[in-house]
Every structure is written in C-alpha cells, then in structure tokens.
C-alpha cells in the first residue's frame, strides 16, 4: 500500500513541462470551502503553487491561506494555554499525593503541549522544506487529468477515492481505497478504469511496513508487531508519474467529491526485499496521453492474449511498469514520521498481516 508520497513541489515547472493548465476555479472553491470545515485538509506544498502566481484568483487563495494559518495559530495557542493549566493542576495534586488520574493527566498534557508547540513552529515557518510535499490519505492534492478540450489539467482531488455510485460509508469500510489494486481494476474499480485516469507527480513514496515483514519472518509467540516507515525514491533522483484512477461522486443531497486512488501492483525486487508486497505503478512520459484519454471500449487490447490476469498496465498502449525509468533503481531508507499541519494520517495497517482493508 502506498500510504503516503512526496509531491513534486516545482509545480510551475511541471505545468510547463507537461503542457498543463491549472483549474484555478476549482482551487479557489476548495480554499473557500476549507473556511467552513476542518474536514478539508490541503498539503502545504499546494499553497506554494500560488505563491508567485499572477491574477486575482491567486491573490484570493493567498489571502485565504494567510487567514487559515492565523486561525490555526490562534486555536493552537489556546490549546497550549489550556494544557498548561491542566499540567499545573496535575502537578499541584501530585505535590500532595500521587494519584493515577493526576499522573495520567500530567503525561497527556505534557505530550499535547510539546505537539502544539511544534505545530506553532511549523505554522510560523516561512521557508519551505522538503517535508512540505508529504501527502497523506484524506488530503486534497493536484492530480493531472484530461480536460474537456482534450488538454491536460491540474485539478485538486481528495486522496482516497470514493467511486461514483458507492456509498460514503465505503470510506470507513474500506480505508485502503487510496490505492487501487491492479488485479481489481475491472472489479471494484470498473467504473473508473477506462474512464477516469489521472497522474500524480511525486518524488518519493512511503510504506508503513511491519518490522517482522521487513525482516522476512513471522511474529514470534507473544511478540507485538512494530511498525516502521520506509521511503522509496528513484536513483538517480527523478520524478515519478504515478498512475491513478479518479471519480466524480455525487450524494443524494447534491454534495460532490472529486477523489482519486493510486494504482498499485506487485513490487519490483527492491520493494519486495524491504518487506512490502505492493508498489505504485509509474507511467512512461511518452505514453501520458494514452493513459489520460483511455478508450473504455478497448480494454481487452491492454491485456496479453490468453492471460486472465495479464499485466494490463504493462501493455504497450499504456507503458506502465514499476521501475520503468531507464537506468533507474529504487533507493530504500527508513524514515521518522512526524504529524504535520494539514496531514490526515492514514489508519495503521493490520501489522500482523501488513495489509489495509481493501474492497472485494
């Protein structure tokens, strides 16, 4: 499962290189909607897309970002004040007698204060950092899709796909739907495969892997599973165009949601050796249009004859293949993950099996 990725942050260069336009109206709507709900989370790297952009719409977005950050600072400062009061009360109690409640209250308050102060530092920071590009399921990020005029458009979408026609409860029932398994493209994802294709430009992807899986062994009797996060990036460094499926969902009340999932396949040796059984599927640049504008009547042409589970995304029509970049190898390293602003952490996988819940 690709539970997180690092976006390519040079969006201006990306737009120029791939001849894309930015759906500025969609971004403006998204930032306005965020004023009304904490449910909308946007990666900090998306904010930078509009930092130097000309025009009234970009100026509106910059103003909304400043307003949002100020509100976040105020709310976090209030949290620090409340938790410091809680800590003082607990320590006052502990000076006279030791109680479990006061000890636990002191522990919780201390942890919340530390987390809130780190968040304040992050909110007040003005210099961009590489970690700003980290994305997690539940966030809105730019996805490259085909426009109505046949061009390429960068549009904000929710990173966990809710297919059209599926109930909203599937988000909780199948929390792993930020990925779409290649072997289920004509099953659960049949409404999107051959219809709604997109591309996510990333520099790296991350996997939450159980330590015993990475070590190639079973859990020992009585052993508790431990999680570790692995970072995968290409060497020499280069961007990856991750193949995705997207959908336009509409609820009975008229609510709409544009969302996507990254396609995953069996891993190349470097990923498998690290203890993970899935990998994103990079797209060859020369086949970008073939992927973004598929023919839903000709899916069979993407399968090798006589193979019921043929490598559909490795067919010449799409040219998708893990590790497809010429001369590139996947570099793996362990990383420490901290919760940053705007990040909606993915639910932990079942560490005994190293998997998330997937649709049938």
Structure description:
This protein has 360 residues and is of the alpha+beta class. The protein is 30% helix and 23% strand. It has helices spanning 11-17, 24-34, 44-48, 56-96, 100-124, 170-173, 211-214, 269-273, 288-292, and strands spanning 4-7, 20-22, 41-42, 134-135, 139-146, 152-159, 179-181, 197-210, 227-235, 240-250, 256-265, 279-280, 329-335. The protein has a 5-stranded mixed β-barrel. Helix 2 packs parallel to helix 4 (56-96). Mean pLDDT is 80; it is low at 301-327 and 337-354.
Features:
single chain, 360 residues, alpha+beta, hypothetical protein yedk fold, five-stranded mixed barrel, 9 helices, 13 strands, 30% helix, 23% strand
């Amino acid at each position: 499962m690709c539970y997180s990725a690092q976006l390519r942050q040079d969006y201006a260069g990306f737009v120029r290189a791939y001849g894309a336009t930015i759906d500025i109206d969609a971004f403006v709507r998204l930032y306005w909607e965020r004023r009304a709900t904490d449910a909308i989370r946007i990666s900090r790297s998306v904010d930078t897309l509009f930092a130097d952009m000309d025009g009234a719409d970009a100026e509106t977005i910059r103003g909304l970002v400043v307003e949002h950050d100020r509100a976040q600072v105020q709310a976090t400062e209030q949290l620090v004040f409340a938790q410091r009061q809680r800590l003082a009360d607990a320590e006052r109690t502990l000076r006279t007698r030791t109680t479990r409640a006061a000890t636990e209250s002191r522990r919780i308050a201390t942890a919340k204060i530390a987390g809130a102060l780190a968040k304040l530092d992050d909110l007040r920071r003005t210099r961009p950092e590489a970690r700003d590009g980290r994305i997690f399921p539940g966030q809105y990020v730019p996805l490259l899709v085909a426009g109505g005029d046949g061009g390429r458009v960068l549009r904000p979408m929710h990173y966990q796909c809710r297919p059209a026609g599926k109930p909203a409860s599937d988000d909780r029932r199948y929390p792993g739907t930020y990925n779409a398994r290649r072997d289920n493209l004509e099953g659960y994802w049949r409404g999107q495969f051959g219809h709604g294709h997109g591309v996510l430009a990333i520099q790296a992807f991350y996997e939450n892997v159980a330590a015993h899986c990475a070590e190639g062994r079973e859990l020992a009797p009585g052993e508790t599973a431990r999680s570790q996060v692995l970072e995968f990036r290409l060497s020499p460094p280069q961007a990856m165009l991750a193949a995705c499926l997207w959908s336009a969902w509409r609820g009975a009340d008229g609510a709409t949601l544009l969302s996507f999932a990254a396609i995953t396949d069996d891993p190349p040796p470097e990923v498998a050796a690290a203890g993970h059984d899935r990998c994103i599927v990079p797209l060859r640049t020369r086949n970008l249009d073939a992927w973004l504008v598929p023919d839903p009547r000709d899916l069979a042409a993407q399968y090798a004859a006589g193979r019921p589970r043929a490598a559909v995304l490795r067919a010449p029509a799409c040219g998708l293949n893990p590790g497809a970049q010429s001369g590139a190898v996947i570099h793996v390293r362990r990383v420490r993950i901290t919760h940053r602003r705007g990040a909606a952490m993915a639910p932990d996988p079942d560490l005994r099996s190293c998997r998330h819940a997937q649709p049938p």
